[in-house]
Amino acid sequence: MSKPRVVIVGAGHAGGSAAAFLRQYGFDGPIYLVGEEPLLPYQRPPLSKAWLKGEADADSLALKPAAWYAEAEVALRLGGVASEINRGAKTVTLASGEAIPYDFLILATGARARMLPIPGADLANVLALRTAADAEHLKSVLGAGKRLAIIGGGYVGLEAAASARALGAEAVVIERENRVLARVACPELSHFFQRYHGERGVTFELHAGVEAFVGEDGKVTGVKLADGRTVPCDAVLVGVGAHPNDELAKDCGLDCAGGVVVDLEARTSDPHIFAIGDVSHRPLPIYERQFRLESVPNALEQAKQAASAIAGRAGPTPEVPWFWSDQFDLKLQIAGLPFDADRIIVRGNPDTASFAVFHLKGDLIQAVEAVNAPPEFMAGKMLIARRTPVSLDKLADTTISMKEVAA
Amino acid sequence: MAKITYIEHDGTEHVVDVKPGLTVMEGAVKNNIPGIDADCGGACACATCHVYVKEEWRDKTGTASAMEESMLDFAENVEANSRLSCQIKVTDELDGLVVSMPENQH
Ligand SMILES: Cc1cc2nc3c(=O)[nH]c(=O)nc-3n(C[C@H](O)[C@H](O)[C@H](O)COP(=O)(O)OP(=O)(O)OC[C@H]3O[C@@H](n4cnc5c(N)ncnc54)[C@H](O)[C@@H]3O)c2cc1C
Ligand code: FES
């Protein structure tokens, strides 16, 4: 019998890592890695941080050097778009016409930036930030004397604002809600980040609707707000969330629910097909829920799950979902998700730029948001996994170490 | 180029050349050395790049920052010679460096 063949669609963080884990786990069948972007798999987090500020080069973005793929015999189809899955024949067809048969298929198509369907959206310098090419474009319009308008005060938007400031550009964040990070963080954290950014020259338009982008000679020059004002700018970054690239899966009849539905092995409703990373809608046993996560740790965990299942070994220990973000000299680390939380405990003082917000359901920690507070993050992550009650008084008392709280 | 030896928990040795300027973590990841997952890509945020630095190299690799120390405080199987490999920059000085990996990075 010939060895099973794995085809991975999407050569991003999840897809690239899955190929590497398959080889690490001793899988020795053929691996095909199909990726729409013309680049080897790379990390996206630095695109809004170190790379944008000029502190990291393209080499350090790449997950593996080109030579690795040759050595590991991973057949690359870069610049190749998968356009159809035939589950009966077990083939993936590329836009080029090539049909690649598979025994196991891993969908790792990620998500794409959501754009705003408003007038002026097609003006030059109205940008998104999802790919290396996007980042290249953004960097080319930043610099001293330039003004960047950022639509959406989420993580990517705030990171880009901090990087723009570091490059000497002005940054104005325009947000529909009345606080930044409204979708993803608690009010305490939002207020802290807004103040910290404000002190470093980032300006904010909160509670502001965006009506249109206005321009001259085909190039954006301002953002028209619902209250009639126009915010002048040299470029716009639209950072209003992402949409899973689950169309391929939907078209071939796999279960989808705002992402491809998978189990704890990252297997879809078809046992021969896996879905990992931003495109998947995955179980979160701690919270008894299914959810779509957008983070590198999630992409890596699911890459390990799928690679383990295919290589026939036990899957990785389930992880507490976590995420990090760097802005200015702040390190934000978040563990868990605040589902069903009924109270919060702030440990430390937000004015000192080192504090943590714990989200609790009764006396169980559901999530922790830690700013320059690694012990709170690390111990919090452990306690979330453990599902044992904590003393709320100890948690709030910074004279008691996190070691003791976790003991 | 600096020659770095990475020793897996089961004793398997990997000797690779790492370009100065990269970190000890990047040297491992780019060569697909098992045992260093580096979930955060070097942001000092995950502690999945934990290594033990061979005693005679501890001076040359320097000391951990406060941030690194507190991440290590909560990592598993920490020893006096534990470091986060993403916080060790490779220089010509580190040619010959030997590090080993703990049993589990999570
Ligand atoms: C600017 C930015 C900053 C971020 N910062 C952080 C951070 O600090 N911490 C963190 O944890 N996470 C961060 N993330 C999120 C993290 O990068 C993603 O969660 C991760 O990249 C998901 O990996 P993925 O492989 O699922 O998707 P991706 O990395 O997006 O890869 C998907 C790939 O599939 C390709 N593709 C799609 N459809 C097809 C098709 N039909 N055929 C072929 N190829 C296809 C796409 O072109 C893409 O290359 C950030 C993301 C961005 C954009
Ligand atoms: S790679 Fe995450 S702490 Fe070193």
Characterization of the model:
The complex is a heterodimer of chains A (407) and B (106). Helix content of chain A is 25%, strand content 30%. Chain A has 407 residues and is an alpha/beta fold. A five-stranded parallel sheet of chain A has the order 3-2-1-7-19. In chain A, strands 9-16-10-11-12 form a five-stranded parallel sheet, covered by helices on one side. A five-stranded antiparallel sheet of chain A has the order 22-23-26-25-24. In chain A, α1 (13-24) runs parallel beside α8 (296-311). Chain A starts with 5 loop residues before the first strand and ends with a helix. With 106 residues, chain B is α+β, with helices and mostly antiparallel strands. In chain B, 17% of the residues lie in helices and 21% in strands. The longest helix of chain B has 7 residues, at 24-30. The radius of gyration of chain B is 12 Å and the shape is globular. At the A-B interface, α1, α8, β22 and α9 of A face α1 and α3 of B. The structure holds flavin-adenine dinucleotide and FE2/S2 (inorganic) cluster (FES). Residues 25, 38-40, 42-49, 84, 86 of chain B line the site of FE2/S2 (inorganic) cluster (FES). Chain A: This is FAD-dependent oxidoreductase. Chain A: It comes from Caulobacter sp. 73W. Chain A: Residues 5-303 form the FAD/NAD(P)-binding domain.
Concise overview:
The complex is a heterodimer of chains A (407) and B (106). Chain A is α/β, with parallel strands linked by helices and 407 residues long.
SSE topology:
The complex is a heterodimer of chains A (407) and B (106).
Chain A: E1 6-9, H1 13-24, E2 31-35, H2 58-61, H3 66-71, E3 74-78, E4 82-86, E5 91-94, E6 99-101, E7 104-107, E8 111-113, E9 126-127, H4 132-140, E10 147-151, H5 155-166, E11 170-174, H6 187-199, E12 203-205, E13 210-216, E14 219-225, E15 230-232, E16 235-238, E17 242-244, H7 247-251, E18 260-261, E19 273-275, E20 280-284, E21 289-291, H8 296-311, E22 322-327, E23 330-336, E24 343-349, E25 354-361, E26 364-371, H9 374-386, H10 392-396, H11 402-406
Helix pairs in contact in A: 1-8
Chain B: E1 2-7, E2 13-18, H1 24-30, E3 50-53, H2 58-61, H3 66-72, E4 82-84, E5 98-100
Parallel strand pairs in B: 1-5
Antiparallel strand pairs in B: 1-2, 3-4, 3-5
The structure holds flavin-adenine dinucleotide and FE2/S2 (inorganic) cluster.
Protein name (chain B): 2Fe-2S iron-sulfur cluster-binding protein
Family (chain B): Belongs to the adrenodoxin/putidaredoxin family.
GO molecular function (chain B): 2 iron, 2 sulfur cluster binding; electron transfer activity; metal ion binding
